[in-house]
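#onboarding

Welcome to the new folks! Below is a worked example of what a typical request in this channel looks like: someone posts a single protein sequence, and someone else replies with the predicted structure as tokens. Don't worry about understanding the tokens yet, we'll cover that in week two.

Example request:
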Amino acid sequence: MLIEDDAPIRARLALALSARGDFDVTQAGDLAAARVALATQAPDLIVSDLRLPDGMAIDLLAEARERHPAVEVLVISVLGDEATIVAAIAAGASGYLLKDALPDDILATALEVLAGGSPMSPSIAGFIVRRAREGGLVPMATAQPNADAPRLTPRELDILWGIAKGLTYNEIADRLEISHHTVPTHIKSVYRKLHVGTRGEAVYEAIHYGLIKL
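Example response:
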């Protein structure tokens, strides 16, 4: 499934993906069309822009991963800021390319994602490597929340950090040594305070408010 609002770019990407017969491409130009298509089919791969006419695709990608756990996600976007990259990865993206990637490389990249790889544009990969060397997300105590940031409890911040790390609910519970049954309750509270409904959106808003720091 290819999700891209710019018709000429969508046509070029669809041709690159289907020219050799590797993919049968379903196309969508916005979130609404993509949701309709996802309700009736389970794609092997979603290739998606992030900024669409009816909103950001991060929530859609998280929804698709929840509905179809086997689906792989490749983001192709002009957005290369740290908050967006982390939010997309938290939403389930396995690959992330900037739109300056050559069309001829798109097919090879898509096939690599399906094969279990995590291809990324050089600048994106460089950011990931730097953050990995620095230990990824820093402890919550060093983050400086904005003045208008929602008030989260220390436990909610711990769980938010786990979400940003991409941990499962059980992994968060094990690391914090708390009951597996209490994690969803804390996560619902985090979502409510941040006015979000998905992991990716929670990470995006948390970075925006300074609740977690890259």
